[in-house]
Amino acid sequence: MSAHLKQDEPDTRNVLDGMEQGIIGQPLARPDGLAKVTGTAPYAAEYPVADCLEGVLVTAPFTRGEITAIDKASVLSMPGVVAVIDDERLTARAAQGTAGEAPEQPAREVGYFGQPIALVVAQSFEQARDAAKHLTFDYRADDLDDVPLDPETAGAEPQDGATRQGDLAQAMSAAAHSVDVTYTTEGHNSAAMEPHAAIAQWDGTKLTVHASLQMLNYNIAELADALGLQEEQVRLISRYVGGGFGSKLGISEETVAASIAAMELERPVRVVLSRQQVFQTIMRRSETKQRLRLSADKDGHLTGFGHEARVSQLPGETFAEPVLQSSEFLYAGENRLLQLEVARIHRMTAGSVRAPGEAVGMPALESAMDMLAQQVGIDPVELRLRNIPERHPSEGLPYSSRKLAECLEQGAKAFGWDSGARQPRQHRDGEWWIGTGMASAARVHNVAEARARVTLKPDGTALVETDMTDIGTGTYSIVGQVAGEMLGLPMDQVLVELGDTEFPRGPGSGGSWGASSIGSAVFVACEELRAKLASKAGVSTDELKLKDGGVVGGATLVELLDGEELSFEGHYEPGDIADDYTASGYGAFFAQVRVNRFTGETRVDRMLGAFGFGRVLNAKTARSQCLGGIVWSIGTALTESLLFDPVDGHVVNCDLAEYHVPVHRDVPDLEVIMVEERDPAASPIQAKGIGELGMCGGAAAIGNAIYNACGARVLSFPMTPDKVIAAMPD
Amino acid sequence: MKPFDFQRADRLEHAAQLCADEGTRAIAGGTNLIDLMKLQVETPQTLVDIHRLPLGRIDDTDDGGLRIGALATNTATAVHERVRREYPLLARAILAGASQQLRNKATTGGNLCQRTRCYYFTNIDQPCNKREPGSGCGALKGVARLHAVLGTSDECIATYPGDMAVAMAALGAVVEIADAKGHTRNVPVRDFHCLPGDTPWRDNVLEDGEIITAVILPPPVAGRQLYRKVRERSSYAFAMVSVAAIVALEDGRFTRADLAFGGLAHKPWQDPRLSALLLGKEPSAKLFDEAADVLLDGAQSYGENAYKIPLARRTLTAVLAEATGMEL
Amino acid sequence: MPITINSQTYDLPEDNRVTLLDFLRHDLGLPGTKKGCDHGQCGACTVLVDGMRINSCLSLAAMHDGDHITTIEGLGTPAAPSKLQQAFVEHDGYQCGYCTPGQICSATAMLQEIANGWPSDASDSLEGPMVVSGAEIRERMSGNLCRCGAYANIVAAIEDVAAAEDAA
Ligand SMILES: Cc1cc2nc3c(=O)[nH]c(=O)nc-3n(C[C@H](O)[C@H](O)[C@H](O)COP(=O)(O)OP(=O)(O)OC[C@H]3O[C@@H](n4cnc5c(N)ncnc54)[C@H](O)[C@@H]3O)c2cc1C
Ligand code: SF4
Ligand code: FES
Ligand code: FES
Question: Which residue is closest in CA terms to ligand 2's atom 8?
Fold first, then answer.
């Protein structure tokens, strides 16, 4: 049986708060925890599969052109080599998030340096890896003089959907205060710790693939499309995913290649990307160049708001880093100009990396806001508070629940923010200048269609099944907690099964929509189950109080069920409500840094984030998401930068030694405040997303603190020592 | 990784004999060699496992110095009681490098011989004169962020990436090398690595069949010992610039200023003109600036690495200020 | 000589190219030890060799004959987890869990290193005594990347275990 909810109206019933079990929101340890800490949780490449062959991808050593011939014989005689797969169906790029169809580009047509072109399959990994380096092929490469590689000089196309309102130039020239500044941010790599991997098995009619994927509901369609199969012929399994951060939203080359090989060879085939291949063939976050124009009256009320950005992308891709997403609605200013443009260049595919858009747009905006506060001569917290608009500044929509002011105020208080006059270079500790900075956080809220089946077993336990994934975000926990709360069961009485397309289709994990969407589907199913239980208990649904496996003061679930099994599939759909409200998560960051006056090295001393993202479903895992976001803020601020070769466009620093994700020592004590909130317009469980908010602006708090510490206004992220010393006044 | 023949050497001479073949490589900790073999940057036909040869000891020398065996791990050296007390510069340099896991495997000999981290050297789809003589230098027209500003050539602008050797150079240490015939020769660490010149494939003076047996530290000297490593993240990163210093003052004047630099050249960089300039003078901001002028006289940058010139100046100033207790 | 892993002995692989990491993961069916980079750059593959932590990806299995290796599977099981394993669960010292076995193996050895009085780059004095502080843990654990950014919770978990051991 199924139950359906399309949310067109805010759900103000607050059903979860009326339940008895008392586990929703609690900081419970993860049910999958012991498996993870003991190394018994299996990730994609780790399923024991008998007779499994190993495949290694071969990549193109040129930028643009085509493979004209592949000499399979060049490796087929090598020890252990079984096959060279150069099937037309091999994909050249990863699918973009929610594509739902295979990437169009064939592997033989090369569009970027390092693109996969073939798969070598051998008995052992060692044999395949060696043979992959020896495969010879003919190709025609375009003259690099004709291949655009530099986003600065390549022509750019403006994107549709620009906001033009009033006259920004006029507002700028008439304003008491104005800032006109251009920031740049460098490319990022998701760098999930588990490299992309797949084991494909074909039994002649059905393809089963263990893969590392975020969105099985879309991935199954993408893979079926790539292979020319029906979805019914494909089963994807991703029970544990070693991080995704956008890089596993769409199916990537290894999954398609492993599948083709398994079907062709009629044997299981495993393909795992090398770390270098992850860097070179999956996704990058585009570098950006952003011009911010802010004008304000003498009290700091914004009169003009301009945010223009240039990003880059390969030809043939529609995704463009949505840099301006939160700039659309975060602050006031009646004269507005927001415009995104895309330069077409032959670097690897640009795609979603944690918090696409705000991850780089918010740091630039919040840095410009810091400059404006300095000009106006007011506390930067106050500047933000003064510019919280009543309604969406261009669309006029009301906001759903918004806790920006609370985050700013509570965050400032807990951090011990000094709201007095701010001058750089006021504090020194030996060689180190010490300073503080802050920034707002914003990340648009999304929900997606989701299905989950909840079954009450005759023994009084519950089973939740969905193909939703847990990529580290805590889905196993929060799904169990929603079901347990609704059905009056402690966590150990709820079994959660995820990551298998044999289960009802979830929303996939991405865009921070996972928890609220899948939580809502589970909620919808549980409401139906509760109605059934109520009628069995002879009470109304509202009167039904369930706790610890039974009706409070009444029958146990086992008694009520009396041998029967009850099962509902909950189906949640985003409704018209999305058109009626501007919904977003909000927050504020506060950081204290030290900057070495000689070397320009910056270390974060402490950092605090205060966030409002609707209902907290599990305070432990939600806090972890916030912590992770703050760590990414540190990386964006100080260390992370993809470098591209100017001659052929390849990713130069394609490993974890030279692409610097933060290490333990980069991350100080962090404090997280989760502001109490219920957002009835966001979802029927009043929750919004939290996976990305923690990095939407945090880098600016660090950059602003660098300025406050030492007087260096660095206009480019990451603020590596070379840039800091170049900007440091003498 | 290409298939290779795996041999275990049970004696030093045996190892040296095996290594006399061009396609043969000794493997100690393996943390550099296996890394490069997976990338097929290194493709030895034979690997000679030397890691169990009895070259791991750290012993006092007759003259009061210290002899660090070639197979002593970086960890063993850094935690050695005399190293900590009398050669803190060396302990600090080692501890500033890599991670504890790597230092537990990395050996003295392997660390000295570790190859450059140049991105083009480690990518076999790119030109590199060091890896493939005559193919060109990818870094020259490419991204030279890690690259050298001193002692470069048109053929190669790579750096020696290590930390330990920079400290050893400042300490005046000597590399002890044995060959297959049982002969040994001693080469000062400062002369062990080569400049790229027109033989960029050559990292150091080792000949085929030669094995490093130890590094010998002279008796400890009086003075402050400092190792300063500037890096993009606070740990587990190679140096952008590093400075090793042994500095002593008497009556407010320099009586010792042994300096060596990492991240600037194809070898730990030393410039005898520096101590000549500093000795006998009173520390001052102006003097430090002059020292930096001398150091960087003739420095040449290649795009992305231009920052190294001001960064080296600033880091040298910071180290001299710290070593002399000056407030700048 | 055979190799001993978690108290069981095994013959070395035939192909001498097989790293200790791939030997564990592929040949022996012990995939608890993770491969994050295969080049010594992430620490996911950390195992203990005679008590010392190393990156198993940069070591040939053939070079470990006679050695005693402990992997995450040897430190504890779901039924009998080690103190650190428990503390990681309690403090949410992970998210995706992929770096976790490496973090735990590393932390196990690290506490011993501090007990040995070994210094780190974060130690003010090289000559000790060495303390278990936040700054020390962070430096000493920096060879283990966590892209999920669970660092603060990992440090809290380790501090907890160290404090309990101290009290004991
Ligand atoms: C991610 C990462 C980060 C790192 N960070 C740093 C850092 O910050 N600072 C730093 O200094 N280092 C760093 N390193 C490098 C590390 O220190 C070296 O890999 C290590 O020191 C090499 O020692 P090994 O014994 O493992 O050498 P091996 O890999 O065994 O050998 C390296 C080379 O030396 C030769 N060799 C070894 N022993 C001898 C001998 N006795 N005689 C003659 N030749 C010999 C080998 O034939 C081989 O060519 C890092 C490494 C990695 C992977
Ligand atoms: S700098 Fe040296 S190592 Fe780097 S590409 Fe040029 S020749 Fe090769
Ligand atoms: S897999 Fe060994 S360090 Fe990354
Ligand atoms: S828990 Fe995901 S990388 Fe550490």
Answer: B128
Is residue A674's pLDDT more than 80? Answer: yes
- In this structure, the strands spanning A550-551 and A335-344 are unpaired
Which residue(s) pair with A289 in the sheet? Answer: A184, A310
Q: Are A281 and A348 in contact (CB under 8 A)?
A: yes
Yes or no: say if B251 and B258 are a contact pair by the CB < 8 Å rule. Answer: no
- Mark whether C132 and C92 lie in a shared domain: yes
Is the predicted pLDDT of residue C168 greater than 80, yes or no? no
| Per-residue pLDDT tens digits for B5-42 | 999 998 999 999 999 999 999 999 999 999 999 999 99
Q: Tell me which chain A residue has its CA closest to the CA of residue C95.
A: A472
Q: Judge whether A692 counts as a catalytic residue.
A: yes
Cα distance between residue A703 and residue A639, in whole Å: 12
Closest CA to B3 of B43, B32, B39, B36: B43
pTM of the complete model: 0.98
Asked if C108 and C59 sit in the same domain, the reply is no
Dihedral of CA atoms A253, A254, A259, A265 in degrees, nearest 10, equals 120
Q: Give the model's pLDDT for residue B47.
A: 98
Q: Find the C57 Cα to ligand 1 centroid distance in Å.
A: 14
Q: Where does chain A hold its CATH 3.30.365.10 domain(s)?
A: 2-41+447-579, 396-443+583-727
Please tell me if residue A698 touches chain C, with a CB cutoff of 8 Å.
no
Instruction: Give the range among A31-35, A419-423, B238-242, C116-120 with minimum mean pLDDT.
Output: A419-423
What number is the average pLDDT over the span A515-533? 97
Residue B29 near ligand 1, beta carbon < 6 Å = yes
Centre of ligand 1 to C-alpha A540, Å, is: 73
List CB contacts (< 8 A) between B6 and chain C. 16, 60, 62
Does the ipTM surpass 0.90? Answer: yes
Mean pLDDT of B156-180: 97
In CATH terms, the fold of domain A2-41+447-579 is Aldehyde Oxidoreductase; domain 4 (3.30.365)
Q: For residue A244, list chain C residues with Cβ-Cβ distance below 8 A.
A: 96
